[in-house]
Amino acid sequence: MTAAARKKVGALIKSARLEKGYTQEQLARKVKDCSASDLGKAERGEKELTTEQLKQIAKATGVTQKSLLDAAKSASTSSSSGSRPPAGASTTSMKVTATERKLVEAYRQADAQTKKDAMQLLKGKSAEALAGNLVGNLIGALTGKKENGSEK
């Protein structure tokens, strides 16, 4: 991992730690084979943590593992190749609840019309007309069954 990648990952770790209200010592206790000193060095970009340590930090702080691992990968590839993220791509991480995660997963599995209906419903448009169809489709997406009960 390049120095730029280590600094980017370190900044994300520090931000997540502070947002959770942990000291370096408190977070380090939740990560196997990681001292507060190691964590401080990682936050400053002076030390590279293992993938397993990054996963444990993500779990402890409530950020997605993917955001930390992607930061490590994207910083090392973008600094060496000079490429940028695609237009409109987000470079920040966001905490989501389990319910929000399920909604995102259901949305990703849904067909185009269901996605359109869901967006209209969330914006408060035509709630009555869309609700029945949307609920059936979302339940189908989550259970793997069509509205009539047959397997997809």
Distinctive features:
single chain, 152 residues, mainly alpha
Structure, described:
The chain has 152 residues and is mainly α. The chain has two domains: 3-81, 434 Repressor (Amino-terminal Domain); 98-143, no CATH class. It is 66% helix and 0% strand. The protein has helices at 3-20, 24-29, 36-43, 51-61, 65-81, 98-109, 112-122, 127-143. Helix 1 packs antiparallel against helix 5 (65-81). It is elongated, with a radius of gyration of 20 Å. The model is unreliable at 78-90 (pLDDT under 50).
Could you state the order of secondary-structure elements as H and E? Answer: HHHHHHHH
Low-confidence stretches: 78-90
Please state the overall shape, judged from the principal axes of the Cα atoms. elongated
Number of strands: 0
Helix content: 55-70%
What's the rounded overall pLDDT mean? Answer: 76
Fourth CATH level, the homologous superfamily of the largest domain: lambda repressor-like DNA-binding domains
Q: What is the total number of structural domains?
A: 2
Strand content: under 5%
Reported by name, the CATH topology of the largest domain is 434 Repressor (Amino-terminal Domain)
Number of H/I helices: 8
Which structural class fits the helix and strand makeup? mainly alpha
Q: Quickly give the CATH architecture of the largest domain.
A: Orthogonal Bundle
What topology does this entry show?
Blueprint: H1 3-20, H2 24-29, H3 36-43, H4 51-61, H5 65-81, H6 98-109, H7 112-122, H8 127-143
